[in-house]
Write a structure and sequence with these properties.
Layout lengths: L1 E2 L3 E7 L2 E7 L2 E6 L4 E5 L5 E6 L4 E6 L5 E5 L4 E6 L2 E7 L8 E6 L5 E5 L13 E6 L5 E8 L2 E7 L4 E6 L4 E7 L5 E9 L5 E6 L5 E5 L4 E5 L5 E6 L4 E8 L5 E7 L3 H5 L5 E7 L9
Parallel strand pairs: 1-22
Antiparallel strand pairs: 2-25, 3-4, 4-5, 5-6, 7-8, 8-9, 9-10, 11-12, 12-13, 13-14, 15-16, 16-17, 17-18, 19-20, 20-21, 21-22, 23-24, 24-25
Length: 283
């Protein structure tokens, strides 16, 4: 197994989620800072927009239109002429705050949610995965997921893999021509690891942020861990491959507590590691 040590790129954020490499910069949501940023490879940042309902997963329609999950009001938004407008209202489908998402090449988005009120201590419940089509119509395409979180699309658009954080598993589905999901199966059992944000490389490996175990790992189908990035004393939140050659792995880490989130304590950071297999473009 290969072990890596990350380097700090930028800090001073609250809690970073949904990193995406786009137009030569890392686009990322500061969920509890209520903003999204574009961060360059030298650590310079630009505020893209403010979102009081808490931004999470980011994506793009085929024409480049930005999509963002709005957590608290359970919507998928899109940016039109510099303004965020509703792309799909998911409140009829989501039983908890909406969270991460992945968009495919046809403009379909797959959006997860918590399933219950995590921060209030409500008993855990399973959640559904919702597909939003390019016209903004939405429907449930998978049920009974244990905190569906980060997702990737692989095999030339034929397979979706979603992290079930509290199920400790990466779960795969076949994607048919209409975007429906079937043939649910375990892609990788994660043991004690709690997969949060994930990203795909060109060799077919998936980089996984394991929130509770303070580490990022690269795993292949079947569950073999090939690479490890420990981040002791921090939560491993999300990851994304990018950079000029696609071989920079951007890591979102969090060094605070749940209570610190509500006080907007600056405990979030972006760290980086150079890796061998480049980005495969998902999420």
């Amino acid at each position: 197994m290969n072990t890596h040590t990350p380097t700090l790129l930028a800090d001073g954020f609250v809690f970073l989620e949904g990193p995406r490499w786009h137009q030569g910069r890392l686009w990322i949501s500061d969920m509890w800072g209520f903003k999204a940023y574009a961060v360059s490879t030298d650590g310079q940042r630009e505020v893209l927009f403010d979102l009081p309902e808490r931004p999470s997963g980011l994506g793009f329609l085929p024409d480049g239109t930005l999509l963002v999950v709005s957590m608290a009001n359970r919507q998928l938004l899109k940016r039109v002429n510099g303004q965020l407008v509703t792309h799909a209202d998911l409140s009829a489908f989501a039983t908890g705050d909406c969270n991460d998402m992945v968009a495919d090449a046809k403009g379909r988005s797959y959006v997860g949610n918590f399933g219950y009120n995590l921060l209030s201590g409500e008993p855990a419940k399973l959640a559904d995965l919702v597909r939003v089509d390019p016209d903004g119509s939405a429907r449930v395409v998978a049920t009974g997921l244990n905190f569906p979180n980060g997702a990737v699309i692989t095999d030339g658009g034929k397979t979706l893999v979603v992290a079930e954080t509290f199920g400790n598993v990466l779960t795969a589905f076949d994607i048919d021509a209409a975007g429906d999901l079937s043939n649910r199966r375990v892609w990788a059992a994660m043991g004690e690891r709690t997969p949060d944000g994930i990203c795909l490389d060109q060799a077919g490996g998936i980089w996984v942020a394991s929130f509770m175990t303070s580490e990022f790992v690269r795993v292949t189908e079947g569950g073999t861990v090939t690479d490890l990035i420990p981040v002791p004393g921090k939560a491993a939140v999300a990851c994304q491959l990018g950079g000029d050659d696609g071989r920079t792995l951007f890591l979102s880490t969090y060094a605070g507590t749940i209570e610190d989130l509500h006080q907007q304590k600056a405990a979030g950071a972006i760290e980086t590691v150079r890796v061998s297999s480049p980005a495969a473009g998902s999420p």
